[in-house]
Amino acid sequence: MTAASLSPTQREALARLDSRADELLEFARLLIATPSPNPPGDERAVAAVVVERLRALGVADVDMPGDRPERPNVIANLPGSHGEPSLILSGHLDTKPVGDESAWNRDPFGAEVVNGELHGLGSGDMKAAVAAMVYAAGVLAELGLRGKLQLVFTADEEAGSVHGSQWLAGSGRLHADVAVIGEPCGIVREWEAIDVLSRGAALYKVIVRGDQMHSSISDRLTMVNATVAMARLIDRMSRELKGHLRYEPHPLVPLGPTVNVGVMVKGGVFYGVNPGLAEFACDLRTLPGMTRESVEEDLQAFLELAMHDDPELRAKLCLEIWVPATEMDAGHPVVAALRDAARTVLGEVLPVQGFPGSTDATHFQLTAGVPTVAAFGPGFLPRAHGPNESLAAASVLQAAKIYALGALAYLGSDN
User: At what angle do helices 128-143 and 8-19 cross, to 10 degrees?
Assistant: First the structure.
C-alpha cells in the first residue's frame, strides 16, 4: 500500500486523523495522567476516561464488563454494514507501579512532552496505543466499515490478566476472526516488527532450607546458612539453567528462552540467627512447544543435580504461574494489512518477529480461539516497567493512522 494506491476512504481517514493530531496527543496525556497502577489494581478512573471519549467521538455501543466493580474492562463495537470479517483492536488499561519514585526525573503522571518525547508511567506500555485505537475507531465510525470492529481494553494485564483477558475469554465475551494487541513492538527502536508470536512465562520460586540456630556458634557446629546456600544456587542457576532446558529453536525468537533468576529474594530472621529458610523467585520466558510439564521436569532435574553435587543443599521447587506461548500464522491477511499500513505511514516494510514477553494473546488465542497479533504498537520495551518511561510523541498519531488503515484494508468500507 503506497500513498498513491490509497482509496479515497483511506485518504480521508488519514486527513481526519491529521486534523485531530493535537487532540489525540492531549488524550494520550490525559490517560497517562489518570493513574491505574497494578498492583493494587483499580481501572475505574481510566476506563471512565476512555468511555467518555469514545462516546464523544461517536462510538455509542460501549460496555464496561468486569468480575469486580473496581476492575472494569471496556468493550466498544462498530458493527459494520455486513458484520464480517471481524477484527479486535486491544490494549490494557493498567500499568506497573511507579516503583522508586526518586529515580524518576519527572512526575510519573505529569504526561509532559519534552523535546518530542511523551513522558510518563504507561506512556509506551501502553496508553499511547489505547489513545490511538480510540481515535482510529472514532474516524472509522464516521466513515463506515463493512466488517465489524471491536475495541477491547482490558484490566489486570500487568498482574496476570485474571480480571481482564482471562475473565473475558473464559466468560465467552471475546469473538472475532482476528485480534491485534497494541503492545510496544520495539526493543532497539520503535515500530521494529509485527510480532505474531508471544513467548510464554514460567514463574516459579525455589525454597532453600538451612539450620536455624544461634549464629555465634556457626564456627563451632556444622550448620547450613540457607541464605548462603540460596546465593550459591542462584549463581549456578543463572549460569547453567538455560543449557538444561529442552526446547526447539524458533526462527522468530533466535535467542531462545530467557532465564531471569532472583527477581525477588528473601531470607533470614534477624541478627544473631543463622538463617534456616530463604527463597528466591525466577522468571523464565518460554517458546512455543515448551509445556508446563516439560519445564517443571527440567527445573526439578536441575535442582536434583545441584543437590547431588552439594549434599548440604535442600531446595524445593514451586511453579506458581504458567502462561503458554502463542503464535499465529504470519500469512494471515491482517498481517499483510498491518504491514501495508505501516509502510504507508512509516515508509518502511516491517519484518515479522516474536514478542519477547507474554501478552493478552494467550487468552485471546488459546482460550477464546481468536488468532492474535501479540504486539504491534508504539513505544519500545527497554523503557517499560522502569522509571522515566517515554516514547516519541509523534508515534501516537502514527499508531492511530496504522490502526485505521489496517482496519480499513482488512474490514473494507462501503464508501
Answer: 130
Active site residue 195: no
pLDDT in tens, 322-351: 999 999 999 999 999 999 999 999 999 999
Strand partners, 203: 283, 321
What burial letters (b/e) apply to 135-154, b meaning 16+ CB within 10 Å? bbbbbbbebebbbbbbbbbb
Q: Please answer whether residues 295 and 242 qualify as being in contact, where contact means their C-beta atoms are separated by less than 8 angstroms.
A: no
304: which 3 cell numbers?
536434583
Active-site residue, selected from the candidate residues 42, 43, 156, 157: 157
Residues of the chain with CATH 3.40.630.10: 3-198+325-411
> Cα–Cα distance between 25 and 73 in angstroms, integer?
23
**b or e along 267-296 (b: 16 or more beta carbons within 10 Å of the residue's beta carbon)?**
bbeeeeebbbbbbbbbbbbbbbebeeeebe
Angle, vertex CA 185, rays to CA 184 and CA 187, nearest 5:
100
Is the CB of residue 411 less than 8 Å from the CB of residue 88? no
The per-residue pLDDT for range 144-180, each reduced to its tens digit, is 999 999 999 999 999 989 999 999 999 999 999 999 9
All three cell numbers of 123: 506512556
Q: Which one from 42, 94, 190, 327 is the annotated catalytic residue?
A: 94
pLDDT at residue 414, as a whole number = 82
Residue for grid cell 535467542: 255
Query: What CATH code is assigned to 200-323?
Result: 3.30.70.360
352-355: strand order across its sheet: 326-327, 194-198, 352-355
Alpha carbon separation from 266 to 187, 205, 227, 277 (Å, rounded): 31, 11, 8, 9
- At residue 106 the predicted structure's pLDDT band, cuts being 50, 70 and 90, is very high
| 3-198+325-411 classified as CATH 3.30.70.20 | no
CATH 3.30.70.360 region(s) of the chain?
A: 200-323
- Active-site annotation holds for 157: yes
Length in residues, the chain: 415
- Rounded Cα gap, residues 131 and 24, in angstroms: 7
Closest CA to 180 of 51, 359, 6: 359
- Non-local (6+) Cβ contacts of 33 within 8 A are 109, 110, 111, 120
Q: How far apart are CA 393 and CA 123, in angstroms?
A: 9
